[in-house]
Amino acid sequence: MCRSPNTNPNWHAFLTGLPKCEHHVHLEGCLDAPLIFTLAVKNNVELPDPASNPAYASVETLTARYGHFSSLDDFLHFYFIGMTVLKKKSDFADLAWSYFSKAKQDGVHHAEVFFDPQVHMERGVSYRDVVDGYVDGCKRAERELGISTRLIMCFLKHLPFESAKKLYDISLKEGDLDLNDGNPVIHGLGASSSEVGPPKDLFRDIYLDAKDKGINLTAHAGEEGDPSYIKAALDMGATRIDHGIRLVEDPELMKRVVDNDVLLTVCPVSNVQLKCVNNVSEVPIRKFLDAGVKFSINSDDPAYFGAYILECYLAVQEAFGLSVQEWKTIAENGVKGSWIGEERRTELLGGIEAHVKKFEGVL
User: Fold this and answer.
1) Does the annotation mark 223 as catalytic?
2) Cross-strand pairs, 242
3) Most exposed residue of 83, 141, 159, 357, measured as fewest CB within 10 angstroms of its CB?
4) Mean of the per-residue pLDDT values for the chain?
């Protein structure tokens, strides 16, 4: 059986059409160089002087620079500069729509997307403009593309705890985390940005309070940081782990993850781009499958890393030569680990089953 997408075109068709759930994509990470320059002009935002930062000389030079990050912090430097062009509610709506449009082409049926209000609010953008803009983009995706969506608000680890607490209090006061109607505006909380350096349990008090309120919790951990970062996130109440590739270094913790049905949201191309691994083949995909660790495959910050979700699927297939049944397992675990109701879950699982049957005997 030929398993490489490079030698059997049916693999490309199979992976393109396989119904996907994306759980780890930052909307601000979908801000590509052309849109950055366009919004900078529209909103009268001055980008860095090319004399001191040559990457900002043109769309082409900035795009080329994105392919050469030396570390997570090097990437974050450009990531936060890019955000400065977002000023108006419509900017956030347009950014979300640009992601969902591409996701639809890549076979995404359900997307749970991160956003970072703190950096925007520090620039004077109102909380409501950020949230409502992204909500508009999500609703448009559901209405016009048939993609179900969930918003996950991230706290940033490089900022003081007080900044995160202020944001959390605002979101509670605004009612955006209210679970009473069964469909809150914000469906979960996450923690991202610099991993190594800030305290592992920086947001412990917020997470414990949110857990008591029944709010969904996830956290970036185990990307650059060792497995103790994953343990700290789980101890705070996270039921999903974003990245988590260093879990393989702690067999006991890996058993805990398996036993508790914790979903890892793995980002293989991102791991390569940020020098966590040398190539996709070093991401522990096979080890996770063999151990029964549930994971989904995601794009993280696709505009910066040059790979949206389909490219990530293809990269994994090229590196590991997975079987159709293994891909079915990955897709189904993604659905089961999503923060959705049973009706939508059943619908998505049915779509996967139907798609796999089309390729029985072909791959």
Assistant:
1) yes
2) 220, 265
3) 357
4) 95
Catalytic choice (22, 112, 195, 223): 223
* DSSP one-letter string for 218-238: EEEESSSS-HHHHHHHHHHT-
Neighbours of 286 (CB within 10 A): 14
Check residue 194 and give left, alpha or beta (phi > 0: left; psi -120 to 50: alpha). beta
**DSSP assigned state of 214:** T
- Angle CA(115)–CA(177)–CA(302) in degrees, nearest 5? 15
Edge-first strand order for the sheet with 20-22 is 20-22, 108-115, 148-156, 188-192, 216-221, 240-243, 263-266, 294-297
Q: In whole angstroms, what is the distance from residue 361 CA to residue 363 CA?
A: 6
Which residue from 6, 21, 11 is spatially nearest to 344, judged by alpha carbons?
A: 21
Q: Residue 30 has which token pair?
A: 């979908």
Q: By three-state DSSP, how is residue 115 classified?
A: strand
**181 CB contacts (<8 Å, ≥6 apart)?**
none
Whether the CA torsion 159, 85, 31, 48 is positive or negative: it is: negative
pTM score, two decimals?
0.94
Confidence grade of residue 5 (pLDDT, cut at 50, 70, 90): low
